Batch of 3 targets.
Target 1
Amino acid sequence: MRIVFIHLGLMALAELLVIGSLLIEPSQEGGFLGFSPGRWAILFVNTLMLVGVLFAIYKVWTNPPEKLEIWLANERHLFWLFFLTLILFGFSFPAGLGMIPGIREFAYFGRIQPTLLWMAWASGAVWLTLVAALRASILRWFQQFFPFNLPVQEIPRLTRAQRYIILGIALVHIFLQLASMFQVREAHWLPDSIDYIFPAETYAWNEPGLWTHTKPWGAAVLYKLTGSSPATIDAAQTILSALAWLALAWVFSRFIRVRWLRVVSFGFILGFSLAPSVQMWNHIIQSESLSISLMTLILAVWLSLLQNWRWEKLFALITLFAWWIGTRETNVYLSLMTAGILVLVGLFYKRQCFYWAVSALLVFFCYVNIGISEVPTLPRWLYPLTNTVLHRILPEEEFRGYFEYFGMPVTPELLALSGGFAHSEDFAVYNNPTLDDMERWLYRKGKDVYIQFLIAHPVYTITSPWQHVDELLAPSELLNYAPDKYSPVMVWLFGEAFFPNSLWLVLLLALLAFALTVRSKSWRGSPAFWLVLGFLVLFFPHFYLAWHGDAAEVGRHAIQASVQLRLSLWLLLWLALDTIVSQAKQN
């Protein structure tokens, strides 16, 4: 009780100082007692807060201590007090420091700043006091929102022969990955590779250039860790990919209850990773290999978290997400959608409310990366937007008219680039003085007008990717990116059966997975099913982002979405088969 009195007393004293600062500030002529209506309003609000604190002191003084303890022990009261003070501090502290533009630019900011800082101090002190005084109760209360002590699915032990087979499959997978690495020896350069190597070679860890260069920082950080030697990069990307797919194969197979099917699914996932559309990126200096490997690791760690809750797994998941978000621009928006899904999961499942914290961190990571993308002289979105406007908007009279209505300067010099890309005519949009107005328009208004255009043309927005689905999900020129020395292993198996390139086969796989899922009802009591289903659902926004985000090299930009689609369908298929075989055994 003494701590509560001291805390409330200090709050009242601090509030008196705030009111005093408002009263002694030199007055301007006009208004009651020379104070403006705005200052009277601020004084009135602060007086009300002081009265509230004094009333709290009175209630604590006149009531027995047991009543306060009983009130604080109530789960609902604890919930609201704990999070209300945290939310209040999270708003008032940055606002008081002038970190929120809308409040900083407010005409009365100088006068409300002491009040905001008082709110930050008071709410922060209450929160810390609550944590210190009720740490045991808070810990017990928080545990109901975490999946502690939940029954773990019993995993049938494999026979010795089956364990040896899994070990053999893993060794063969590692051998084939290393054989491919020694075959290529040096990672292949593409035109964009310099945008990852340059910041890795040029900037130190504490220099902004490493994180704010023309491309997302994820691959540059990897190359900073490995060094910029193409041979080292090839080895690092190959080893990281092999470990990621081994982790996913092992963790996912532990959800399979039929032992022989577990062995088969383990081998199948590793075979999937040997498909040229997956493996070839390990030998290229770009962000695709890292992004696919991190996506695979995120799925593996998340599945492992569902099997057995541990704090280190949660921290690993958050760390992987942070790196993945910084690897490709599309990952930012996919993570924002993931954050939204996690909020819904926490609403429906009490023991999954901890995902709200994960969701908040994802939003924060995305916010930071969106800010970073605006830092370069040419924001990262400007080049792909230029590709889209030149290649898709200018050739269509209706679309061109829409953009022209919103100020795009359509000149003969610009029309000469119709159907081209940003690099056309030696990057004419950026280098030709006659197109300076176009460059300024793209920078100032282009992104907003393009978003409005997509909203105003829903039929085009929805249908255009599907009209070019083969370019996105089954590009014929994909192997042109691979090094000349790269020779895929057993393309007829890994590149056709495991990773079907034919869209008809992909459609057949989707129908089969759907039919077996409905037949088996594999969603019952299977957290792995819902995670994989969410993974599949996120393919669709990924698919649209890859198409509408850039008109150039759409097959390469969509490769991660392509991997995501096929992998999620296979995982759903394996879960359904496991359920069907298990039910047949029980009957």
Target 2
Amino acid sequence: MSVAKVVYEGGVAVLAVSNPPVNVIDAEVRAGISRALDEIRNAPAVKAVVLLCEGSTFFSGADIGEFSGPPREEEYRRLFGRIEGLPVPVIAAMHGTVLGGGLEIALACHYRIAAPESRFGFPEINLGIIPGAGGTQRLPRLIGVERALELILDARPVTARAAADIGVVDRIAKDDLRGEAVAWAEALVAEGRGPRRTADRAVDPGTADPAVLERFRNWAAGEYKGRQAPLTAIEAVRASAILPFARGLEYETELVNEAKATTESKAAIHVFFAERETRKVPDVGPDVEPRRVSRVAVVGAGTMGGGIAIAFANAGIPVTVLDATREALARGLGVVEGILADRVRRGRLSPEEKAKRFGLITGSLDYDSVKEADLVVEAVFEDLELKKEIFRRLDAAARPGAILATNTSTLDIEEIAAVVARPEDVVGLHFFSPAHVMPLLEVVRTRYTARDVVQTAMALARPLRKTPVLSGVCYGFIGNRMMEGYAREAERMVLEGATPRRVDTALEDWGMAMGILAVFDMAGIGVGVAVHRANAHRYPPDPTYYQADATLLDAGREGQKNGRGYYRYEGRQRIDDPEAVELLHARGRALGVPRRSHDDEEIVERCLFPLINEGLRILEEGIALRPGDVDVVWCAGYGFPRWRGGPMFLADTIGLERVYEGMLEYGSRLGEPFRRVHWAPAPLLEQLVREGRSLSGWAAKRGD
């Protein structure tokens, strides 16, 4: 059955495409549309055409799977040109998410009508490329250079109303998109309105002023530090104002093919596909049925518990929040309502939807309230004995077959599972704060965890809008275990004489979303100190280990919580604080830490090389299934730049030999015991360097 079919309604040819689940414009779709256009051209009674898609959305974009193959831009150009060249009016009737190539094919149509809930955008720069099928040439001709750059560089979808306001959409349908599109086509024919080709328009020169372009270049250089794709997009859009349309398309193709060849693009596309792969667990196939989860309970009404409750309520799942005291419960539910109310104030949620979601959340002081829950998530303070006691009570109260999950970020889940009579029902669900916002969910599988429990956790990520990554049991799992070395070096460098601003700026300029010391301030310095003090027996014999945090906390500096940490705060604004710097440097002197000067390269390498090294240990131990899983954890949960591909992709990019040499070099510079304790290369790193192999090659040989 063809993916494209033509149905005739009087003089209107309705060209409907169906390529589930999201109508990607792949080779089969292109061929199907091309055949349909042949049919339409040979049907003399056709007076107008309506292009639409069946299913949940209009074309959601081009086939990203083709990006690694030979260039396909000529195929898109030719097809879209055929649509635009039809001698009768062509209307794009759009619904769902109209993104990338989907918006480009709509721009090749002569008129555009959209369902009210539709969203429109060009996300290409998030993949290190630019719109390459006419988007950078048609869009400025339609709405001007300035507005075109705003849409392309922002990369986030806009609503149908916003798209109409800027001129991308001509009409918004009321309730019957297809019917209204056909009626409009008939009206255009009756009015004698013919094709209205975007390609025939000239770009408004007033929108292409050199000062406008320079403003966007300066903005892109600051907003997208170190990235080329936004600047390439500006160049392509600039060309639309000075080149004829056909030559502009050719230049756009040259630019997009250059962009595809960059490490930036390869890295972003790697993460895109790695996120798809994380849901695949080798021994948990589609034959394993997930358990039903229609009601949830959360133990702990603190920041994390409240965020988890909101995440489930956002998914439409009723949730009971349990806490030990009436005061704590009331405070927690008050915070939850405040978060939802804030979303209403910012226009992200209607008052009715806010009431509906908050209505799904109920509070309780009684463990009997979990009896009806299909899943219970424990989200209390990181105290192993406390968590064990809670699981004993849950074991007695929860119904048979209910999944018992812990949100611990560091503790041994197998120890927790050992205290219940049904360890096969225990799993780790490590949400990241704020839990209702952050997209990562580490699913931690113990040696006891049943396969259907794993399947349930991975499946549950979809309604929660999370990206799940499976982890084995170890201290800190994937992300926090790797964080140890990364953060350790940042803290060590401020004891050596660097300022917090110096360290954080180097990391942010390299691409991290936030410097690690600022992250500690945001999370609360006491949180990290408590974890390190509770787990002191796990750490190496180094008196300087994580002493910067401890020094600040001992001085009453808790981070953003009380406005003083590594920085001083006015609201959320970071302000350099000489008092903090002196405390840190004095602590370094007291510990006998040698003073050093640090350039950007040393700061970045000293943080990233241990991070990569620990990732290799995690892979060798089987804690993570694939290098891509490690990359997804860091890109989705820790602010690692997607355009650098994650720490494991980065390792191959810069070369494993460079990482190995860097481990030895910094270990030698810092001397004993650091060379032996902190800077010992992972066995897998040594092996791959010795054999001259890449990490991706190693993973491919294992079948990853």
Target 3
Amino acid sequence: MRALLGLGVNKTEIRQINILTYMLSFDAVLPAIASHYAKQQAFRDDGLCWGAYTHGQPSGVCIAEDIGNVRTIHTIAVNENFRRRGVCRSLLDECIQTAATEYIALKYVPETSNDYFDVFLKKCGFTVSPFQKSAVVSVSEQSKAEWDGFMNRRGGKLLKRLHDKGYRAVSFTDAEKDILDTLYAEMGVKFPSNLDPRKCPNEVINSSSFITMVHGRPTAYCVSSTADSGQTAIIEYMASSANYRGTGAFLLCLASSIEGLKNKSRKVAFAYSERNQNLPSLFISGIFSDMTVKAVNHYAISNHK
């Protein structure tokens, strides 16, 4: 534990905490997204969580995980009653100073060109680089009609050809254990290891996450997740097997995910790497007229001891 003094009389103390302390002291005073990450990510064997106490009151939390030579910060959240008192900086300092990794990093989506947290991270010494983009579509009668129009004009025909060849989509909820075991065994072999569905930091929506199968083998998948209890669904961790790229197998699981989400969520976000623009080509080529594309930045700082 380290005692850190903020400006003036704002005394903040940082302590590493466990799940019981979090649930008893922090769960009710922090945003729901922080609560989700605390429960899903921070309290695994390799998870880390620090709690901030300002004048003895729970005021903030930092949740991170050491992966290889990088300490990845999943979230920093500060109670609105304690903001602009140095709580965030104290949490960030503790996370950096206790790291044995070479780098400390996090992802963040700036809302404006002068975003406060973006400016704050740069002042703290973080360098920024583009990581991926997120295309956000509001679920409305218009966007549903646009999707249905695409499926009637083109998508439906492609899916029929796949079905005729024996392809089928199965949800993560309905997939039998041997299907999931086969999929996970092929991570790093036929599928990219960095897109392993088990590493998704958000809450996975299993009923709207699909695997495309043919001849008993997984050929493609896309994972739907949420960080706000389902209000916004994020279609991410999208990949095709090296042996089935260009076959249309990916469209089958993507279309199944969209169909499963269009009547459940208020927004659907498609997350994709800027270096892999072929995957989002379906939805950035004119299907949806009401779409906002946001940049997801990667922030990193070297850990010089």
